[in-house]
């Protein structure tokens, strides 16, 4: 329905009178959202009615956790906000893990949760859960909409907050009566958030200090994290690195922001990083962190971390600076802008020749390694072969566990945004639905979900989406018949007492795939592996691979808990 112009109107379009749910759908269109992931239920039914009427693309998950992880995968690959819509109560609590995951890994999400009517909020009404209270610490911001008049402003702010500064999840809790009430939909008013003004452009004096530090350093290292990906700053990073000849270490989430096969790339740092990456940080006289947050899996024991280094920390979130590591030169701002300014300022490169050749030698002496064992499939070998058959071009998504670490170690990511993993929260069940979202972000890409046999069972029901839409996601189960990473820790740190971590019996994964009309292939022998993977890639639709790998293989090298980066175990003898 068309209505009058209101006095504060800022554009020439007539302001429409819409229901709250109509406003939501109209806002999604204004924000350029082309796909949403969700699951209906009572409190959100008016919105689902609008989805039906307006024909917006909605992907029906089979569990809300699947919907939110798909939205995360979509966001990670597309760089656009992922949108997830669920009902109140259990629907909403089912997305809590995904929200926490997105928060710690800085993924832009707008999560709409239905809520009971404003008249009964606080009465323990049917399917009422306090989503504002529950998600307060795990959202970048959250809103409960109390009247339809404030809905356009809230939706606009939600998208703005989710996608600007350090990205993150924003939750909008939408009571049923608000979604049914009608009001004026003015989406053109300027956003006015005086308390939220992320710093994008860094201080030039700080930038000069970084360049000065670079020109005097003999052993500099860059630690590049996901902030480089979020800031779309990979090209600038490569230019800066090549100009100054500074070696690069990636965090787990930063993989792909710098070419994995570049001469100056040392690999991933941290618990299961490369020996060279960790030793480089240990010996560095200058450590430049860009868009990384020094999490404990990266640093190991802080008392031993980068003992010789002056620390530069470039981050868009000022709260990260000095949180874990004392910083000599803080730079608050966007990674791309910071690198552009570093290049503009054109500092003098330092003399790093000796340092770089020392690290090259370490790289050659201590590569990632594993032992072959007859016809037994080694998981590392599986990842190398997946890299081979996809020319390193696939989007790879994982859960958490051993398969995640082997993927990070052995699939060399040469391009940004090919790597989707649950880093900070370490969420089992993330990888497969995230692959679904990734496939929507890039319909033409080869998307491979590398999962553990345990984690896959947490969200396997989303095979329904592949079946329904013939979505060509390839599922590779690294099947070690156990909770592999748990088993490894029990072996190493709990006297080989394998408490509840071994699967005496497993589902027939091939038959499970077939139940969803998905092609299933089981591989037991190394000599069959390449051909089977090629068959998977050649198949135009979805495929599930059940790869029986060595059951007791451990992820090495490793920094044991409490140890420093220089105390890695399991390096190549
Ligand atoms: C939801 C959830 N529950 C428990 C854990 C603890 N955990 C971390 S790794 C792991 C084992 C994963 O096993 P699997 O999925 O088979 O992968 P693998 O380590 O064998 O590659 C467990 C239980 C977790 N990370 N997430």
First-residue to last-residue Cα separation: 74 Å
Strand order within the widest sheet?
3-2-4-5-7-6
Q: Helix segment count?
A: 23
Secondary structure: number of strands: 20
Helix/strand-derived class?
Answer: alpha/beta
Helix amount:
25-40%
Radius of gyration, in Å, reads 25 Å
Characterize the main sheet: 6 strands, parallel
Bound molecules: thiamine diphosphate
Q: Which word captures the global form?
A: globular
Strand content: 15-25%
**Poorly predicted residue ranges:** 1-6
Kindly report the average pLDDT value.
Answer: 96
Topology of this structure?
Elements: E1 16-19, H1 20-30, E2 36-39, H2 45-54, E3 58-60, H3 64-78, E4 82-86, H4 90-93, H5 96-104, E5 109-115, H6 131-135, E6 141-144, H7 151-163, E7 169-175, H8 176-180, E8 182-185, H9 204-216, E9 220-224, H10 226-230, H11 234-244, E10 248-250, E11 265-268, H12 275-283, E12 286-290, H13 296-299, E13 310-315, E14 329-332, H14 335-345, H15 353-365, H16 379-389, E15 395-398, H17 402-410, E16 419-420, H18 431-441, E17 447-452, H19 453-459, H20 463-469, E18 474-479, H21 484-493, H22 509-515, E19 519-523, H23 526-538, E20 543-548
Parallel strand pairs: 2-3, 2-4, 4-5, 5-7, 6-7, 9-10, 9-12, 10-11, 12-13, 13-14, 15-16, 15-17, 17-18, 18-20, 19-20
Antiparallel strand pairs: 1-8
Helix pairs in contact: 1-2, 1-7, 3-5, 3-18, 9-14, 11-14, 16-17, 16-23
Bound molecules: thiamine diphosphate.
């Amino acid at each position: 329905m068309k209505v009058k112009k209101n006095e504060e109107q800022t554009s020439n379009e007539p302001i429409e009178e819409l229901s709250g749910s109509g406003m939501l759908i109209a806002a999604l269109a204004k924000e350029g959202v082309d796909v949403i992931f969700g699951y209906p239920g009572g409190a959100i039914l008016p919105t689902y009615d609008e989805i039906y009427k307006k024909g917006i693309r909605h992907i029906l998950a089979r569990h809300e956790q699947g919907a939110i992880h798909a939205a995360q995968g979509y966001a990670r690959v597309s760089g656009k906000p992922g949108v997830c819509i669920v009902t109140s109560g259990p629907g909403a609590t089912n997305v809590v893990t995904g929200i926490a995951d997105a928060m710690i890994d800085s993924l832009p999400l707008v999560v709409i949760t239905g809520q009971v009517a404003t008249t009964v909020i606080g009465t323990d009404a049917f399917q009422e859960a306090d989503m504002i209270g529950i998600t307060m610490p795990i959202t970048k911001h959250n809103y409960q909409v109390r009247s339809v008049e404030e809905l356009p402003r809230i939706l606009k702010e939600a998208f703005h907050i989710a996608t600007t500064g350090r990205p993150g999840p924003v939750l909008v809790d939408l009571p049923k009566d608000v979604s049914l009430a009608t009001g004026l939909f003015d989406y053109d008013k300027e956003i006015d958030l005086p308390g939220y003004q992320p710093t994008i452009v860094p201080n030039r004096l700080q930038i000069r200090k970084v360049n000065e530090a670079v020109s005097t350093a003999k052993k500099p290292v860059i630690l590049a994290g996901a902030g480089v990906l979020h800031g779309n700053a990979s090209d600038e990073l490569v230019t800066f690195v090549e100009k100054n000849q500074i070696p690069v270490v990636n965090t787990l989430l930063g993989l792909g922001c710098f070419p994995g096969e570049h001469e100056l790339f040392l690999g991933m740092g941290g618990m299961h990083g490369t020996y060279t990456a960790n030793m480089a940080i240990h010996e560095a006289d200058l450590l430049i962190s860009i868009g990384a947050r020094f999490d404990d899996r990266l640093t190991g024991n802080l008392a031993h971390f980068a003992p010789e280094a002056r620390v530069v920390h470039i981050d868009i979130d000022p709260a990260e600076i000095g949180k874990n590591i004392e910083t000599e030169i803080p730079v608050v701002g966007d990674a791309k802008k910071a690198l552009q300014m570093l290049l503009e300022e054109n500092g003098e490169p330092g003399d790093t020749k000796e340092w770089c050749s020392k690290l090259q030698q370490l790289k050659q002496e201590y590569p990632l390694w594993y032992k072959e064992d007859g016809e037994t499939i080694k998981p590392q070998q599986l990842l190398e072969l997946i890299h081979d058959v996809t020319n390193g071009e696939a989007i790879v998504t994982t859960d958490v566990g051993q398969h995640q670490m082997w993927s990070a170690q052995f699939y060399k990511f040469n391009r940004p945004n090919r790597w989707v993993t649950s880093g900070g929260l370490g969420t089992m069940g993330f990888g497969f639905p995230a692959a679904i979202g990734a496939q929507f972000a890039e319909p033409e890409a080869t998307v491979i979900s590398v999962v553990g046999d345990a984690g896959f069972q947490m969200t396997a029901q989303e095979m329904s989406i592949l079946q329904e839409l013939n979505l060509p996601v390839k599922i590779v189960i690294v099947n070690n018949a156990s909770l592999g990473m748990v088993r490894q820790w029990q072996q190493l740190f709990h006297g080989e007492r394998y408490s509840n971590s071994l699967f005496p019996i497993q589902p027939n994964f091939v038959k499970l795939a077939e139940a969803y009309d998905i092609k299933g292939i089981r591989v037991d022998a190394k000599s069959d592996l390449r051909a089977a993977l090629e068959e998977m890639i050649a198949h135009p639709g979805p495929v599930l691979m059940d790869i029986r790998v060595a059951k007791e293989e451990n992820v090495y090298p490793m920094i044991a808990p409490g140890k420093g980066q220089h105390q890695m175990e399991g390096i190549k003898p």
